Amino acid sequence: MSPQPRRPRRCQLSVPGSSEKMMAKAAGLDLDHVFLDLEDAVAPNAKPDARGLVVQAINSLEWQPRTVCVRINDVETEWCHDDIIEVVTGAGAKLDTLMLTKAKRAADVIFVHLMLDQLELKLGLTRRIGIECLIEEVEGMMNVDEIAACSDRLECLVFGMGDYSASQQMQIATVGGSGGYPPDLWHYPRYQMTIACRANGIDPVDGPYANFRNPEAYRKEAERAHALGMAGKWAIHPSQIELANEVFTPSAADVASARAQKAAYDEALAQGIGSINVDGVMVDAASIRIVQNTIDRADLIGI
To answer: In angstroms, rounded to a whole number, what is the distance separating the alpha carbons of residues 45 and 49?
Structure first.
Protein backbone atom coordinates (compact mmCIF):
# COMPACT_ATOMS: atom_id res chain seq x y z
CA MET A 1 0.00 0.00 0.00
CA SER A 2 1.26 3.44 -0.91
CA PRO A 3 2.60 5.54 2.03
CA GLN A 4 1.62 8.67 0.16
CA PRO A 5 -1.10 10.87 1.73
CA ARG A 6 -4.70 10.11 0.81
CA ARG A 7 -6.13 12.87 -1.36
CA PRO A 8 -9.69 13.56 -2.50
CA ARG A 9 -10.00 13.09 -6.24
CA ARG A 10 -13.67 13.66 -7.00
CA CYS A 11 -12.69 15.88 -9.89
CA GLN A 12 -9.35 16.24 -11.66
CA LEU A 13 -9.31 19.29 -13.93
CA SER A 14 -7.08 19.30 -17.00
CA VAL A 15 -5.36 22.62 -17.81
CA PRO A 16 -2.99 23.23 -20.76
CA GLY A 17 0.49 23.97 -19.50
CA SER A 18 1.05 26.33 -22.41
CA SER A 19 -1.76 28.70 -21.40
CA GLU A 20 -0.86 31.23 -18.72
CA LYS A 21 -4.45 32.52 -18.77
CA MET A 22 -6.02 29.11 -18.15
CA MET A 23 -3.54 28.22 -15.41
CA ALA A 24 -4.24 31.53 -13.64
CA LYS A 25 -7.97 30.84 -13.79
CA ALA A 26 -7.54 27.26 -12.55
CA ALA A 27 -5.48 28.42 -9.57
CA GLY A 28 -8.52 30.18 -8.13
CA LEU A 29 -10.95 27.29 -8.49
CA ASP A 30 -12.21 25.37 -5.46
CA LEU A 31 -11.76 21.70 -6.36
CA ASP A 32 -9.86 18.61 -5.30
CA HIS A 33 -7.24 18.33 -8.01
CA VAL A 34 -5.80 20.19 -10.98
CA PHE A 35 -3.18 18.94 -13.39
CA LEU A 36 -1.14 21.18 -15.66
CA ASP A 37 -0.70 19.32 -18.92
CA LEU A 38 2.58 19.06 -20.81
CA GLU A 39 1.35 16.21 -23.01
CA ASP A 40 -1.59 16.24 -25.45
CA ALA A 41 -2.70 19.81 -24.69
CA VAL A 42 0.70 21.19 -25.78
CA ALA A 43 2.03 21.10 -29.34
CA PRO A 44 5.42 19.38 -29.74
CA ASN A 45 7.26 22.60 -30.62
CA ALA A 46 5.75 24.34 -27.58
CA LYS A 47 6.64 21.72 -24.97
CA PRO A 48 10.05 23.12 -23.90
CA ASP A 49 8.62 26.59 -23.29
CA ALA A 50 5.54 25.16 -21.57
CA ARG A 51 7.72 23.60 -18.88
CA GLY A 52 8.89 27.07 -17.86
CA LEU A 53 5.35 28.42 -17.88
CA VAL A 54 4.20 25.56 -15.64
CA VAL A 55 7.06 26.13 -13.18
CA GLN A 56 6.32 29.85 -13.07
CA ALA A 57 2.61 29.23 -12.52
CA ILE A 58 3.17 26.76 -9.69
CA ASN A 59 5.57 29.10 -7.92
CA SER A 60 3.79 32.41 -8.45
CA LEU A 61 0.07 31.65 -8.16
CA GLU A 62 -1.97 31.03 -5.01
CA TRP A 63 -3.41 27.60 -5.71
CA GLN A 64 -6.83 26.82 -4.25
CA PRO A 65 -7.13 23.20 -5.54
CA ARG A 66 -6.07 20.72 -2.88
CA THR A 67 -3.68 18.86 -5.18
CA VAL A 68 -1.43 20.41 -7.82
CA CYS A 69 -0.12 17.95 -10.39
CA VAL A 70 1.82 18.12 -13.66
CA ARG A 71 1.07 15.66 -16.45
CA ILE A 72 4.31 14.70 -18.20
CA ASN A 73 4.97 13.02 -21.52
CA ASP A 74 5.43 9.25 -21.65
CA VAL A 75 8.76 7.49 -21.29
CA GLU A 76 8.97 6.58 -24.98
CA THR A 77 9.13 10.24 -26.01
CA GLU A 78 12.04 12.66 -26.20
CA TRP A 79 10.37 14.98 -23.66
CA CYS A 80 9.76 12.83 -20.56
CA HIS A 81 13.26 13.08 -19.07
CA ASP A 82 13.40 16.87 -19.30
CA ASP A 83 9.79 17.23 -18.14
CA ILE A 84 10.68 15.56 -14.85
CA ILE A 85 14.00 17.33 -14.34
CA GLU A 86 12.84 20.85 -15.19
CA VAL A 87 9.50 20.73 -13.37
CA VAL A 88 10.84 19.13 -10.19
CA THR A 89 13.98 21.30 -10.14
CA GLY A 90 11.95 24.44 -10.68
CA ALA A 91 8.83 23.77 -8.60
CA GLY A 92 9.32 20.50 -6.69
CA ALA A 93 8.77 22.07 -3.29
CA LYS A 94 5.23 23.09 -4.27
CA LEU A 95 4.37 20.08 -6.42
CA ASP A 96 2.13 17.32 -5.07
CA THR A 97 2.26 14.73 -7.85
CA LEU A 98 3.51 13.95 -11.35
CA MET A 99 1.14 12.19 -13.75
CA LEU A 100 2.82 9.75 -16.12
CA THR A 101 1.07 9.19 -19.44
CA LYS A 102 0.71 5.99 -21.48
CA ALA A 103 2.32 3.61 -19.00
CA LYS A 104 2.61 0.20 -20.61
CA ARG A 105 4.58 -1.67 -17.96
CA ALA A 106 5.79 -1.33 -14.39
CA ALA A 107 9.25 -0.30 -15.58
CA ASP A 108 7.79 2.93 -16.99
CA VAL A 109 6.58 3.95 -13.53
CA ILE A 110 9.78 2.82 -11.83
CA PHE A 111 11.76 5.08 -14.19
CA VAL A 112 9.83 8.09 -12.86
CA HIS A 113 10.12 6.83 -9.29
CA LEU A 114 13.92 6.56 -9.47
CA MET A 115 14.31 9.96 -11.08
CA LEU A 116 12.25 11.47 -8.27
CA ASP A 117 14.41 9.67 -5.70
CA GLN A 118 17.51 11.26 -7.20
CA LEU A 119 16.07 14.73 -7.65
CA GLU A 120 14.59 14.93 -4.16
CA LEU A 121 17.93 13.93 -2.69
CA LYS A 122 19.86 16.35 -4.87
CA LEU A 123 17.50 19.28 -4.23
CA GLY A 124 16.93 18.57 -0.54
CA LEU A 125 13.18 18.33 -0.97
CA THR A 126 11.45 17.30 2.24
CA ARG A 127 7.96 16.60 0.85
CA ARG A 128 7.77 13.42 -1.21
CA ILE A 129 6.23 13.79 -4.66
CA GLY A 130 3.61 11.20 -5.58
CA ILE A 131 3.01 9.53 -8.92
CA GLU A 132 -0.27 9.25 -10.80
CA CYS A 133 -0.39 7.04 -13.85
CA LEU A 134 -2.55 6.86 -16.94
CA ILE A 135 -3.65 3.47 -18.23
CA GLU A 136 -4.43 4.30 -21.84
CA GLU A 137 -2.79 1.63 -23.97
CA VAL A 138 -3.86 -1.98 -24.37
CA GLU A 139 -0.43 -3.07 -23.08
CA GLY A 140 -1.00 -1.00 -19.96
CA MET A 141 -4.38 -2.59 -19.34
CA MET A 142 -2.88 -6.06 -19.82
CA ASN A 143 -0.22 -5.18 -17.21
CA VAL A 144 -2.43 -3.13 -14.90
CA ASP A 145 -1.99 -5.42 -11.86
CA GLU A 146 1.79 -5.23 -12.13
CA ILE A 147 1.68 -1.46 -12.63
CA ALA A 148 -0.62 -0.87 -9.65
CA ALA A 149 1.76 -2.73 -7.34
CA CYS A 150 5.12 -1.42 -8.58
CA SER A 151 5.81 1.79 -6.62
CA ASP A 152 5.07 3.12 -3.16
CA ARG A 153 4.93 6.60 -4.70
CA LEU A 154 1.93 5.58 -6.78
CA GLU A 155 -1.28 7.24 -5.61
CA CYS A 156 -3.76 6.54 -8.37
CA LEU A 157 -4.36 5.10 -11.81
CA VAL A 158 -6.45 6.97 -14.35
CA PHE A 159 -8.34 5.27 -17.16
CA GLY A 160 -7.54 7.31 -20.27
CA MET A 161 -10.24 6.14 -22.62
CA GLY A 162 -9.24 8.47 -25.47
CA ASP A 163 -5.87 6.95 -26.30
CA TYR A 164 -7.10 3.58 -25.06
CA SER A 165 -9.89 3.51 -27.66
CA ALA A 166 -7.34 4.29 -30.37
CA SER A 167 -4.97 1.62 -29.07
CA GLN A 168 -7.74 -0.99 -29.19
CA GLN A 169 -9.07 0.38 -32.53
CA MET A 170 -12.50 0.95 -31.01
CA GLN A 171 -15.13 2.57 -33.20
CA ILE A 172 -16.36 5.64 -31.31
CA ALA A 173 -16.98 9.25 -32.31
CA THR A 174 -16.38 11.06 -29.00
CA VAL A 175 -13.72 10.51 -26.35
CA GLY A 176 -15.50 8.94 -23.38
CA GLY A 177 -18.65 8.21 -25.40
CA SER A 178 -20.29 4.80 -25.67
CA GLY A 179 -20.38 4.43 -29.44
CA GLY A 180 -23.87 2.97 -29.12
CA TYR A 181 -22.50 -0.20 -27.50
CA PRO A 182 -24.97 -1.71 -25.01
CA PRO A 183 -24.89 -1.34 -22.11
CA ASP A 184 -21.48 0.22 -21.29
CA LEU A 185 -18.50 0.16 -23.62
CA TRP A 186 -16.08 0.97 -20.79
CA HIS A 187 -17.33 -1.49 -18.18
CA TYR A 188 -14.56 -4.08 -18.51
CA PRO A 189 -11.50 -1.77 -18.50
CA ARG A 190 -12.97 0.36 -15.70
CA TYR A 191 -13.70 -2.76 -13.68
CA GLN A 192 -10.30 -4.31 -14.30
CA MET A 193 -8.38 -1.15 -13.41
CA THR A 194 -10.50 -0.46 -10.33
CA ILE A 195 -9.85 -3.94 -8.95
CA ALA A 196 -6.10 -3.52 -9.47
CA CYS A 197 -6.16 -0.16 -7.67
CA ARG A 198 -8.25 -1.26 -4.71
CA ALA A 199 -6.14 -4.40 -4.25
CA ASN A 200 -3.07 -2.17 -3.91
CA GLY A 201 -4.54 0.64 -1.82
CA ILE A 202 -4.51 3.32 -4.51
CA ASP A 203 -7.30 5.34 -6.12
CA PRO A 204 -8.94 4.50 -9.45
CA VAL A 205 -9.98 7.60 -11.41
CA ASP A 206 -12.13 7.78 -14.54
CA GLY A 207 -10.91 9.73 -17.55
CA PRO A 208 -12.41 12.46 -19.73
CA TYR A 209 -15.67 13.00 -21.53
CA ALA A 210 -14.82 15.25 -24.45
CA ASN A 211 -18.22 16.81 -25.24
CA PHE A 212 -18.48 19.29 -22.37
CA ARG A 213 -21.71 20.63 -23.85
CA ASN A 214 -23.44 17.36 -22.96
CA PRO A 215 -23.68 17.39 -19.16
CA GLU A 216 -26.24 14.58 -19.06
CA ALA A 217 -23.86 12.16 -20.78
CA TYR A 218 -20.97 13.27 -18.55
CA ARG A 219 -23.07 12.62 -15.45
CA LYS A 220 -24.08 9.17 -16.71
CA GLU A 221 -20.45 8.19 -17.28
CA ALA A 222 -19.48 9.56 -13.86
CA GLU A 223 -22.29 7.59 -12.20
CA ARG A 224 -21.15 4.39 -13.91
CA ALA A 225 -17.59 4.96 -12.71
CA HIS A 226 -18.79 5.75 -9.19
CA ALA A 227 -20.91 2.59 -9.04
CA LEU A 228 -17.82 0.49 -9.79
CA GLY A 229 -15.85 2.05 -6.92
CA MET A 230 -13.86 4.73 -8.72
CA ALA A 231 -12.82 7.79 -6.70
CA GLY A 232 -13.50 10.53 -9.24
CA LYS A 233 -13.46 11.65 -12.85
CA TRP A 234 -11.55 14.05 -15.04
CA ALA A 235 -12.93 17.37 -16.19
CA ILE A 236 -11.71 18.97 -19.39
CA HIS A 237 -13.79 22.12 -18.78
CA PRO A 238 -14.70 23.95 -15.54
CA SER A 239 -18.39 23.32 -16.27
CA GLN A 240 -17.82 19.62 -15.50
CA ILE A 241 -16.40 20.23 -12.00
CA GLU A 242 -19.74 20.60 -10.25
CA LEU A 243 -21.13 17.50 -11.96
CA ALA A 244 -18.20 15.35 -10.85
CA ASN A 245 -18.37 16.68 -7.31
CA GLU A 246 -22.09 15.94 -7.09
CA VAL A 247 -21.67 12.34 -8.23
CA PHE A 248 -18.63 11.50 -6.10
CA THR A 249 -19.72 13.28 -2.91
CA PRO A 250 -21.89 11.21 -0.56
CA SER A 251 -25.10 12.94 0.43
CA ALA A 252 -25.51 14.37 3.92
CA ALA A 253 -28.27 11.83 4.56
CA ASP A 254 -26.07 8.92 3.51
CA VAL A 255 -23.19 10.12 5.69
CA ALA A 256 -25.47 10.60 8.71
CA SER A 257 -26.97 7.14 8.21
CA ALA A 258 -23.54 5.55 7.83
CA ARG A 259 -22.24 7.15 11.00
CA ALA A 260 -25.38 6.17 12.93
CA GLN A 261 -25.05 2.56 11.76
CA LYS A 262 -21.36 2.50 12.69
CA ALA A 263 -22.02 3.93 16.16
CA ALA A 264 -24.82 1.44 16.81
CA TYR A 265 -22.73 -1.46 15.56
CA ASP A 266 -19.74 -0.49 17.73
CA GLU A 267 -22.05 -0.36 20.75
CA ALA A 268 -23.51 -3.76 19.88
CA LEU A 269 -20.05 -5.31 19.51
CA ALA A 270 -19.13 -4.07 22.97
CA GLN A 271 -22.13 -6.05 24.24
CA GLY A 272 -21.12 -9.15 22.35
CA ILE A 273 -23.75 -8.75 19.60
CA GLY A 274 -22.59 -9.21 16.00
CA SER A 275 -25.72 -8.34 14.02
CA ILE A 276 -28.28 -5.62 14.71
CA ASN A 277 -31.22 -3.78 13.18
CA VAL A 278 -30.75 -0.05 12.62
CA ASP A 279 -33.85 1.74 11.31
CA GLY A 280 -34.98 -1.38 9.50
CA VAL A 281 -31.57 -2.16 8.00
CA MET A 282 -29.56 -5.22 9.07
CA VAL A 283 -26.03 -4.23 10.05
CA ASP A 284 -23.32 -6.87 10.45
CA ALA A 285 -19.59 -7.25 9.87
CA ALA A 286 -19.97 -7.36 6.08
CA SER A 287 -22.35 -4.43 5.69
CA ILE A 288 -20.36 -2.25 8.07
CA ARG A 289 -17.42 -2.44 5.65
CA ILE A 290 -19.60 -0.76 3.01
CA VAL A 291 -20.73 1.81 5.57
CA GLN A 292 -17.12 2.49 6.53
CA ASN A 293 -16.29 3.35 2.91
CA THR A 294 -18.88 6.14 3.01
CA ILE A 295 -17.52 7.41 6.33
CA ASP A 296 -13.93 7.35 5.09
CA ARG A 297 -14.91 9.24 1.91
CA ALA A 298 -16.78 11.85 3.94
CA ASP A 299 -13.85 12.30 6.33
CA LEU A 300 -11.41 12.69 3.42
CA ILE A 301 -13.59 15.34 1.79
CA GLY A 302 -14.24 17.07 5.11
CA ILE A 303 -18.00 16.63 5.51
So the answer is: 8
